[in-house]
Amino acid sequence: MKSFSHVMVAGLGVLGAQIAYQVAYSGANVTGYDINAKALDDGRHRLEQLRDRYARNPGSHNPDDAQLALDRIKLTSDLTEAASSAELVIEAVPENLELKRNFYQQLAPLLSPTTVIATNTSTLLPSDLAESTGRPDKFLALHFANEVWLHNTAEVMGTSATDPTIYQRVVQFATEIGMVPIEIKKEQAGYLLNSLLVPWLQAASSLLMRGIAEPEMIDMTWRTATGAPSGPFQIFDVIGIRTAYAVSIAGDQTQQEFAAYLKEHLLDQGKFGKESGEGFYRYPPKTQDSPSS
């Protein structure tokens, strides 16, 4: 028996869609929620792309499982409907403190008293959000890395108010859906992954803003010197340029300059990274796996 048999995923952006699909692929029923028909259409398209990807790389699963997973996902823009049967809510709405707090305040009265809420935030501390959920003892962070089928970490971080049994239940859930649970002992801004990743990305963007080198040269240097498969600007494309912009605009002067660069040279041109087929690099329209300059 799974820890949670019906999961609501709130927000069907790049990572929210991945989470919803991975949970459904593990056998759970999923309700995907987003705010309007356009957002749902975009989410549906992402889920269909994920179905095709998983069908090409089924691992130990039958290729038919990819379609069965998609069939287990119900989409709605009706928050009451989405919340009605949720045993676990995974929130993946944009990285904005007030937006998340407002969402929780709308959501909480619609949930069963036993429903657990997990935030996928990558930059905010769960203690900053806990009270707005109305159930701080049943609230914690469950942070997934992008491209969950490859980078299958799930960082689990509670607050001082999180019930330890809820924490362990979410750890078990992460294992059940094919993730490697990363148990974080106490709150840390950036968790483990981003505490390592963000300074590296900021160093790369600073080199670009100071005119030291272009993205391709910076990436090539990193790949050649370390043997890593990707450089920092390739990682920006994976994370998504909109996410990179949202994080950078809240940073220091250099990071704000980088945010302005992203807006002028990428976002305003409709270049959002891998999700749109072009960011710092261009990606083949079918697989969107391999960059070209």
Structure, described:
The chain has 293 residues and is an alpha/beta fold. It has 2 domains: 6-183, NAD(P)-binding Rossmann-like Domain (Rossmann fold, 3-Layer(aba) Sandwich), CATH 3.40.50; 197-276, N-(1-d-carboxylethyl)-l-norvaline Dehydrogenase, domain 2 (Orthogonal Bundle). It has helices spanning 14-25, 37-56, 65-71, 79-83, 97-107, 164-176, 193-209, 215-226, 232-239, 241-248, 253-265; strands at residues 6-10, 29-33, 73-76, 88-91, 116-119, 139-144, 153-157, 180-183. An 8-stranded mixed beta sheet has the order 3-2-1-4-5-6-7-8. A hairpin with an 8-residue loop joins strand 6 and strand 7 (153-157). The radius of gyration is 19 Å and the shape is globular. The termini are far apart. Residues 287-293 have low confidence and may be disordered.
Element layout with pairings:
Layout: E1 6-10, H1 14-25, E2 29-33, H2 37-56, H3 65-71, E3 73-76, H4 79-83, E4 88-91, H5 97-107, E5 116-119, E6 139-144, E7 153-157, H6 164-176, E8 180-183, H7 193-209, H8 215-226, H9 232-239, H10 241-248, H11 253-265
Parallel strand pairs: 1-2, 1-4, 2-3, 4-5, 5-6, 7-8
Antiparallel strand pairs: 6-7
